[in-house]
């Protein structure tokens, strides 16, 4: 009887010890123990945060509050339309560029520049400032005008700001045979 009672007590003590040691183990477990954070990141409760702001994975990079397209430089225009005819019947093409949202809302229009020598780069002053939806895709249609009629030469896509790509001074966008270089500026 005594031996049985002792054995019971022993078993109870062992169970208590195991329970207590398990509890302690849980309390002592550091949620950051197996978390490896990047440069300029710190682990808070198992999650990596940026030490100085920015985006996790690239903590040096601050999200701009504004992105300005200073200029749109058309580098390459196909010499003929899809029918194999020159863009203009009487002379050099009369070009315009614009910026549209992906929903086809016009944000900016360059106005038509007459008689563009497409064998050379042509620069359109722009200065359009994006202040929201910086990482959305926008469209840049290039058109050739005759009075109020125009032919669409092609549409190039671009994204003002992409996380992880930094702040490039220029963004080059192409669409098969047309190419534009955008001169960019960022504000914070
Ligand atoms: Ca024309």
Break the fold down into its secondary structure elements and pairings.
Blueprint: H1 2-28, E1 41-44, E2 47-50, E3 66-76, E4 95-101, E5 106-109, E6 122-130, E7 138-146, E8 149-158, E9 170-175, E10 178-187
Antiparallel strand pairs: 1-2, 3-6, 3-10, 4-5, 4-7, 7-8, 9-10
Report on the structure:
- The chain is mostly beta strands.
- It folds into 2 domains: 2-50; 66-187, Immunoglobulin-like (Sandwich), CATH 2.60.40.
- 14% of the residues lie in helices and 39% in strands.
- The protein is built from 1 helix and 10 strands.
- It has one helix at 2-28, and strands spanning 41-44, 47-50, 66-76, 95-101, 106-109, 122-130, 138-146, 149-158, 170-175, 178-187.
- The protein has a 4-stranded antiparallel beta sheet with strand order 6-3-10-9, with no helix packed on it. Strands 5-4-7-8 form a 4-stranded antiparallel beta sheet, with no helix packed on it.
- Strand 1 (41-44) and strand 2 form a beta hairpin.
- The chain starts with a helix and ends with a strand.
- The chain binds calcium ion (CA).
- Calcium ion is lined by residues 88, 93-94, 144-146.
